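Obj: model holo form, ligand = glutamic acid.
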Amino acid sequence: MSNQLSDRINNLPTSQTLAMAAKARELKTQGKDIISLSLGEPDFNTPDFIKDAAIEAIQENYNAYTPVNGYLELREAICRKFKRDNNIHYNPEQIVVSTGAKQSIANVAMVLLNPGDEVLLPAPYWVSYSAIATLAEAKFVEIPSTIETDFKITPEQLEAAITPKTKMIFFNSPNNPSGTVYTEEEFRALGKVLEKYPHIYILSDEIYEHINYGTPNFSIASIESLYNRTITVNGVAKAFAMTGWRIGYLGAPEWIAKACTKMQGQITSGTNCIAQRATITALDNPVSKIQFMVDEFKVRRDLILNLLGNVEGIKCNVPQGAFYVFPDVSYYFGKTVQGVKIENASDFALFILEKANVATVTGEAFGAPDCIRISYAASQDEIKEAVKRIASALK
Ligand code: GLU
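Output (holo C-alpha cells):
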C-alpha cells in the first residue's frame, strides 16, 4: 500500500539518529550485547530540583490546556534566560514554547519557506535540518567543511553560496555532529556577510549551548543589525537531561513568533503542562547546578579522543562542545576488512555495528560522507569497551 502514501512522506528520509537508536534497541532485545553510541542524549537523570517542580505542578493541578505559545510565566523565564546567558532581549510575545527544539525548527521552516526557496546548511549539520527544509518544499544547499578547518565555514564560502533565492541559513554552535564551536569573532565575520543580504533569515540552534568546554558561547541575535531577522532556538533536553520531557523554545521577531503560534495551534497546540512548569524551575536556577554533567562530558570527551587516537585510520577534531566525536574514517574506504568491503561511511557504521556490536550514525546523514558520529553521552566503561571493540574489529 505504500504507493498510497503521499509524495511528501515517500520522499522524506528516515531520521538516521532515531533509526540507529531503534536498531540498537532491537538488537539488544534479541539478546545482542550492543553498546549504543548512536543517539545524542545525556545518560544522567533529570536533576531532583526539576523533578520536584514537576511533582508539585501535578499536585497543584496543572492539567488543562496551556496557551499555544506556552505559559506566560515560562515565556517570562525564557526571556530572563536569554538576557542572562545570551545578551538577547526578547519580550514574552516573541517567545514560542514547543514540543522539543525540533518542533521549534519545523515551525520556523513552515512559516518562512516557500517552494523553491533555498536554505543554506553549513555541513556537517544535524540530520533533521535538511529533512525539515524539504518538508517545507524548500531546497537545501550545503556549504561543505572538512576536519582540517575544524568543520568551520568561512565568510567567503558563505558569500559564494548566497543567491537571490536564499531565504534562510541554519547555524548550530556547539555543533551536532562535529562539536565545533564558533567564536564570537568568527560569528561576527559571518554576520558581516549576512548584513549585506537583508533577504536572508537566520536560524540559530543553540541547544548545546551549555555543553561547552571553554569557547564562550555567542548568540548571533545579539548582533544588533541581525536581531530583526534572527530566530534563536533552544530547549532543556541536553543541558538539563530532559530529552523525553520535550520542551524546546524560540525567540524571534514578534511577527515570526505569532506565525509559529498559528502553525502550532493547528498541529499540536501548547506543549505538555507539567513539563512547562518544570522548565520554569530549570531555567530560573543558576547554570552552575548542571555543571557537574558538563564536567563529566569533558572527561569522557578526553577519554574517547585519547582512545580513538590509537586506532589506525581514525582522524578526529577536538570537539569544543556537545557530546559527539565525528571522526573521519575515509582511510578505510575501498579496503576490505574481515572479508567486508567498506566503500563509504554507511558501510563503516554498519561494519562496526555487526562486527563490534557498537552503534554509531553514518556521517552521510549529516552531509559529511567521510565521517561517522559517535555519541560519548555514555559511561566511561562503555566508552572504553566500545573503542576496544572497534579497534579489534578493524585490526
Ligand atoms: N538530537 C539528538 C541526536 O542528534 C536526538 C535525536 C534526534 O532527534 O535526532 O541524536
